[in-house]
Amino acid sequence: MESGRESKERRGLNMIWTAASDYGFTPLFVSYDRYNEPDLYFNTIMGLCYRSFPADEVNEYLLGLQRGLFGALLVDIFWLAMESTVFALYQEKMAALERLRYCWAESLLYFKGEDSMQYLMMRRELADTLRKERCLEILGKAGELHNPWEKKLYGSLFFQNTDSFASVQAEYEALIKKYFLFTPKAIFSSAGRHFTFGAGVSWLLRRLLPMEQSLQGNSNAVGGSIGQLASWQMEKSAKSSKLKQIQEKYPHSLLSEGERLQWERRICTGNHKLCHFYFCSSNDHNHGDANRNNANAQNQFQGNKLRYTLEINKLTSMLQNTLFMAQEPWEKRSRQGEFDIRHLWQALYLDDDRCFQEKQTEPLQNFTVVLLLDGSASRSRQAELIAAQSYVIAESLSRCSIPNMLLSYSTQDGYTILQLLKDVHEESEGAFSYAAEGWNRDGLALRAVGELLHQRNLQNVLLLVLSDVMPSDIQGLPVQGLKVMRQYSEELALEDVAAEMKALRKQGLTVAGIINSIAPLNRDNAFQVFGRSYVKIEKIESLAAAVTRFAEQHINKGIQGEQC
Question: Is 231 domain-assigned?
Fold first, then answer.
């Protein structure tokens, strides 16, 4: 039986496939309404887009857009332009489309909901402003755009030539050039298409974008969305101000300021030299969203308590059996002991006199399991499920007297935040403090985990990483001179994560990945990061077998090491 989350995802995909009249492709986005339910109207719009144009061309172009500095914003604006275009194309062919559109606009406008897409990491104010203007237009109300630049941009969000997707693409790139002051440059590689632009774009936006007096009376007002857009990378706000915001949100740091700066000097180097680090406990969410997440996770767990209890019992039993088998005597070829005729030929022909079997017993080495959870905003729609999965693992390990630690990470305002949800000897309920927000700079998070385990002198560690293998951060990779900014995403980010995984293995850790994303699995990415030590989990019923498998491999690795 599908979980609630998987059922919602399937319904959203079915909406898109039905509108597209094609079930043979994988959409890049699924849209949800304010109640976290599949959005019928916008998923229909997406499906009609795929009906009108080849799915592979649409997906390839959107993937290319995402790789730019303003990639997620440009994808948002693309879909808003496609909404008006597709509606005009199918309005007369689908009688219900106009009513669906009206209800969609009414819901977004009056309840301030967002048609969130599962891969978009953060809210983009410009896209929200334009979307609100679209809703007002649909409902026949007066618009609220006051900035001339925004007005002209909004008026351009309609594709005139829909003969082919190449025509749509050319029209949208012309829009980008006109309103965002850079020309997309196609760079073809095995990884796909990238869009890059000069380092002075944000400065130009700041200097050239028009200002207009606010109707509310603020004579110095600039459209808030434009100010945010122009400052994403070039804004040099004081580090102390950002740190203060982080401290207010997570007030109980586990490091003094001096210790935190020492950590930064050690780990914020190389690909992460422009970044910052913060380490705090799980009880530090000082905002309503986190408290709601905690309550929702516990309520979701209680609502499925029987199911999760069965999984805890199953995983506990399988782990106990693995531990018992690891302590059983095993036979080793020897020059003394019980004669084994199977090896007689080796003595006769190979001069190998180890023709005997000797029973050996090795004490089971104590080991610690560390669960590391990707806490980025792309996981927000799975947050409750991830919290439940983490609780099942942690509680089962504790019942088997296996020390375990639970950590999560996300990146906000340039700070990679590592949260201690559960320490080694604490209760497993800390898993319900898991929250998904911000970006995920996986490489720096892994480096911080390595530093933490080194500081605590934890040895013989099995690190289980629960992730979607999609590292991404708005803070790019450092460059020298006038080179184009390199995004921390896609191949560059995966290379960084793979390098940090390798460093952890050199440190003596056993690392394995549990990929619990609703997105289709990219096996090449998973193999690049985890090698063969990963598994894709689609249902929680598969969790016990996966965790037991990795625990058994780690135990056997230790036994083989002792034999050597």
Answer: no
